[in-house]
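Colleagues,

Please find the record for the two-part complex below.
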Amino acid sequence: MSFKDIIVAEFRFVYADVFRRKSILFMFITYPYMLTAFVLLIGYSMGSASVFMERVGIDPAIFFIVAGFTLMAILGVGDDLLWRPLFDEWMGTLPYVMASPVSRIQHYLAIPIPRLILVLISGSTSVVPVLVYYYGLQGLYEGLAIIIMAGLASLMSVTLVMVIMGIVYGMGGENWRIINVLRPLFLILVGAYYPRYLMPLAGRIVSWIIPSSHVIEAIHKMIAGLVSGPIDILMLLGIATALFILYAPPGVKSIIYWEKSKMREGVNV
Amino acid sequence: MKITGVVDLGVAIEARNLKKTYHTKKRKGLFRSETDVVEALRGVSFKVRHGEVVGLLGPNGAGKTTTVKILATLLIPNDGEAYVEGYSVTREAVEVRKRIGLLLTVEKGFYGKLTGRENLEYFGALYGLSSGELRERIDYLMKLLELDKLGAVDKLYEEYSLGMKARLGLARALLKDPPVLLLDEPTLGLDPPSARKIRGLVRELAKQGKAILYTTHNMFEAEIVCDRILLINKGVIVVEGTPQELKAKLPKLRTINILLRNGSPESLKKIVLEAGFKPEVETTSEGLLRVKVSVQNPEDVLGDLVKAIVGKGYDIVTLRISEPTLEDVFIYFSQTGD
């Protein structure tokens, strides 16, 4: 069975699921707007947009619409991977998935791809219109570039998420609840809402080991107009890719560890 | 690598001395916990040949599902080994997975927001079937299991009745046309037409040469579906054979049932005991007395028994000699299997 067949199967699963749960589709499209509106309303009650511009260097509306969309993309991928074993266990489908001859690694690599594509398409309803409104045609190019980079940021998180997923589920029992603690920390440390250069040192160090955070930094530099040449962006993408590769072997081991530990304790029916 | 240890080429499933112990932690305080150890299997061995339906019968917690899970590569045994089509379930799990069809519970196991067809397409892709093969196979199975007649093909799984769910579960087990089927209580809770449909299909599949391991609680079902029965209790197989062989293994083979009028149950019991039998006496709702005596050869003792009862003034209404049921076998060996 090819990797393509598994992706096609996952496409069928995700699209049937998403299009029948209209609320999910609605959230895909409106989340960046809702988040931007929410943050700006709170932000303006405490200070002005110019203060934000001064400190962060980006118009808050643009910053938060991009942040909302980028996080949607990263969470789309991360959550699909992190929650899938639990979801399958609740649905009673886990035994049948595990008793299939498909490679577990290929399967878990394929799982986030359909939702990622869906999220990226939905970017054209938030990031692109806002940037076009602000910058005209230049905004369109920038918006498309951000969508591509948000896709990269999501993909770069896959191996790290696999490491976490395998360990947490491999520990068995109710340890999956650890994800509830790690997830919000990840949201902060990835830097989408809270640019890394504003973080305290400890936060910056932890943020640095998250591959996606470097792609997000590249996005921030781009929208702040701080890119002096392609090397600036390529350097950050290079670090992200290196970290992605670095996490790949433990990610694979982690998934195998989870599968073995599940087989030792017995897959619940 | 296919093993050569299995001599009988007709053997599709072979379990050799399977042992499985579960360790479950019980929290006893904030920092203290105790480990409960449950021996689910204590050395289970059996074979299932092609074209054979073998029933795995036993009370709750006997080890039926544990055995099925091990054969389905979903559970690693602590000791022993099992082979499916000659492949080891622990060392060659992927090869085993290519050759088994699995049905673990009929209540769930599919995605609710997908239709029956979409669910089968999803699992078919995971099982390595191409789109063309899948389309053909799904159409065939939908017809075979009459899911098309029930209007279930393009219905969301979350709207399925239990009968439809069971049929879809069997359709998934048959998707890749595997030579080995592991069916764990496939008719549990089903309406009679669905249960009958599934039982008939299982027999048909065995005729086609498939090896089927079938767990059930239903004695009637086991008797009509299974060629051989393995009775499992507390993690060991206590007895095995064809339904007829199992009945023959009961020490008290047949029961004399006599319905009487006149007299009290106490005096009737005393009379039968004095005649040298161990009776069960009860009063029926119609006010009659029923005495049951289990013996190996009723013909040899019937005269003495009747003479003893009639001699004390009881009138016999009916007299019947009944064969033991598989249920008697199940109860007898479940109680004596320790």
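The CA atoms of residues 67 and 271 of chain B lie 49 Å apart.

Comments are welcome before we finalize the supplementary table.
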